[in-house]
Specification:
Keywords: Cytoplasm, Differentiation, Hydrolase, Nucleus, Protease, Thiol protease, Zymogen. With 243 residues, the protein is of the alpha/beta class. Helix content is 27%, strand content 23%. Strand 5 and strand 6 form a beta hairpin. The longest helix is centred in the N-terminal third of the chain and has 16 residues.
Length: 243
């Protein structure tokens, strides 16, 4: 008996090709978002991403820009290794609010880069970072211990499912508010960019560190201490190293 770990000690995504990033950010009525855009720009530069920013998209422009990004990736002259999409806006569970106050479905945005719709990213990592509220709940925190999450993935050599190789990182858990400081930006984007720029390791390990730091932070909102932690949904099949 051999366990799968000893068979594939270092299954990792090939990151030798191009790295492309798209940031769609509603800044209107979202003070502090410029600080987040600055931090992301610095991170993408350090991690060698070709990065594009679109400010204040309407709901329709969220879709249009993602479609343009998908076409850009598919027509890129060299192999593409990885794509990042950062979505920052007001939101509700499963929805983002465009600059025009209309809603766009996150699933429609995720769909555009899946293994069926974006051939150049087939079997390649697609990372979505979502800084948006997912409801109205506020977390005051609980006095308890800790939890552990283990993710194990297998892969088939011949075909892959439509929805693999994606990583969705939400600023907060389902139903809850995502906090943003009017000057310093959001706790989530600031913590994530800091960890991604200063730590090495597979991305899920880095995200665990982001979660740990955010879970320890006390955010003052409406005069009360609040807690917030990101939520990570992954269908990655291999380890993803950005450094």
């Amino acid at each position: 008996y051999t366990n799968s770990r000893s068979m594939h000690p270092l299954e990792r995504y090939d990151m030798s090709g191009a790295r492309l990033a798209l940031t769609l950010c509603v800044t209107k009525a979202r003070e502090g978002s410029e600080a987040d855009l600055d931090a992301l720009e610095q991170m993408f530069r350090q991690l060698r991403f070709e990065s594009t920013v679109k400010r204040d998209p309407t709901a329709q422009q969220f879709l249009d820009e993602l479609e343009k990004f998908q076409q850009l990736i598919d027509s890129w002259e060299e192999p593409v290794s990885c794509a990042f999409v950062v979505l920052m806006a007001h939101g509700e569970e499963g929805l983002l609010k465009g600059e025009d106050e209309k809603m766009v479905k996150l699933d429609d945005l995720f769909e555009m880069l899946n293994n069926k719709n974006c051939q150049a990213l087939r079997a390649k990592p697609k990372v979505y970072i979502i800084q948006a509220c997912r409801g109205e709940h506020r977390d005051l925190g609980e006095a308890v211990g800790r939890d552990e999450m283990v993710m194990v993935t297998k892969e088939s050599p011949y075909t892959i499912p439509t929805y693999t190789d994606a990583l969705h990182v939400y600023a907060t858990v389902e139903g809850y508010i995502a906090y943003r400081h009017d000057v310093e930006g959001s706790c989530f984007i600031q913590t994530l960019t800091e960890v991604f720029m200063t730590r090495k390791g597979p991305i899920l390990e880095l995200l665990t560190e982001v979660t740990r730091r955010m879970a320890e932070a006390e955010l003052m909102q409406e005069g009360k201490a609040r807690k917030v932690n990101p939520e990570i949904q992954t269908t990655l099949r291999k380890r993803l190293y950005l450094q």
